[in-house]
Amino acid sequence: MKNSYQYENTLDFAKKLDAADDLKHFRERFYIPEQNGKSLIYFCGNSLGLQPRTARNFIESEMLQWQNLAVEGHFMGEKPWMYYHKLFKNSLAKLTGALPSEVIAMNNLTTNLHLALVSFYRPSQKKYKILCEGGAFPSDQYALESQVRFHGFTPDDAIVELLPENGEQILKTENILQKIDSLKDELALVMLGGVNYYTGQLFDLQAISKKCNELNIPVGFDLAHAIGNAVLQLHDWQVDFAVWCSYKYLNSGPGSVGGMFVHEKHGNNTDLPRFAGWWGHDEQSRFQMKKGFIPMTGVDGWQLANAGILGMAAHLASLEIFDEAGVEKLRSKSEKLTGFLEYLINSNPRLNSALTIITPNNPMERGCQLSIHVKKNGRNLFEKISAKGLIGDWREPDVIRLSPVPLYNTFEEVWQAEQILSESV
Ligand SMILES: *Cc1c(COP(=O)(O)O)cnc(C)c1O
């Protein structure tokens, strides 16, 4: 499916789209950073989402609990810390298409990835390989390498990277599925990013999960760039596990708490190896402090440690906004917003000759982000647009990532972004 909206390259047209946007009021819920008294055009939500105006109050209210109740805060007050992690379940379930018992806010993404690999990467002498995307985010690469070594294998042999066909940047779903088929007797795990951080490609998670399920290969996704960005149905797709962070599209603050999904079918399986901690232990008997780990049912049984309440408070503030806006509506605006940016770049001859968008042009194969390959002097162009108030980010060797975010960006900003790019190339 190609973009089916009819766009025009005028400021008036952008303003009309903003006027017709039901979600436009959500922008007021965020602090928009400024430069010389002017709002920045912040297209960097793929890296660090903006601060919800309510986040400070949420954190402050926990500071007050701590101040006034101290240790009693674990069991008293409006949101007792002992049960704090439960407050996230409904919102995370909506964002991931999961049951509340399948999702948890805890730790950080990389920690959760290791915990998931302990349980779902169980290699044998014959089936020990992991299939992942070539050029995966470095933390994922290091996690996979170290897990493979931990089991006595060598990364060069055990990690198989999916690479695009000659000269292309994008992986074709049929090639991914074929690769899984061809390695079916050797694969112990398929682990991909939901959206590749570099190219912005959104993989067909449903088709990949289906294939893995048919072949009985565990499948997991790193949703760092997918959660809060794409519509996900992890439960129905029969994904085994997923992990994510909350500071990108989820706007929960730098390094804030991550999350994990474990499918219901594994939630009560005590045969799975897992690294345990007291917060994963049965809640009823946790404070008896006895020998012998009894896991909580569902993904809660993967928790390690008591929750970092202060950071999680910002996450809660942010998820409240997602609950109000709704993922489906956000996604529908996002397709238009990113489609508009794509249209403006492609229909401007100056930009068209200097830049190539490497992100797929099919909206079903991407989220908010467009990754723009700059043919010459990319770093220089990136610095120029930043100085003019257009904030994206730079990825070596020659890519600028721009991500208009449906919660707080406008069509007018997209139009201005094109003007800035056009004056700067
Ligand atoms: C952002 C990102 C991470 C970051 O990991 P942390 O543990 O949160 O530091 C990991 N993987 C991917 C794919 C990312 O995009």
Please give the structural blueprint.
Blueprint: H1 11-19, E1 34-35, E2 38-39, E3 41-42, H2 55-69, H3 89-96, E4 103-105, H4 109-120, E5 129-133, H5 138-150, H6 155-158, E6 159-162, H7 173-182, E7 187-193, H8 205-214, E8 219-222, E9 241-244, E10 259-262, H9 264-267, H10 309-325, H11 327-346, H12 349-354, E11 355-357, E12 370-374, H13 378-387, E13 390-391, E14 393-395, E15 399-402, H14 411-424
Parallel strand pairs: 3-13, 5-6, 5-7, 7-8, 8-9
Antiparallel strand pairs: 1-2, 4-10, 9-10, 11-12, 12-15, 14-15
Helix pairs in contact: 1-14, 2-10, 3-10, 4-5, 7-8, 11-14
Residues 108-110, 137, 139-140, 193, 197, 222, 224-225, 245, 258 line the site of pyridoxal-5'-phosphate.
Characterise the protein shown here.
The chain contains 14 helices and 15 strands. The mean pLDDT is 96. The two termini are 30 Å apart. A hairpin with a 2-residue loop joins strand 1 and strand 2. The strands form four sheets. A seven-stranded mixed β-sheet has the order 4-10-9-8-7-5-6, sandwiched between helices. A four-stranded antiparallel β-sheet has the order 11-12-15-14. The chain has a two-stranded antiparallel sheet with strand order 1-2. Helix 2 runs antiparallel to helix 10, helix 7 packs parallel to helix 8 and helix 11 runs parallel beside helix 14. It has 425 residues and is α/β, with parallel strands linked by helices. It binds pyridoxal-5'-phosphate (PLP). The site of pyridoxal-5'-phosphate has 13 residues, from helix 4 and helix 5. Pyridoxal-5'-phosphate binds next to helix 4 and helix 5.
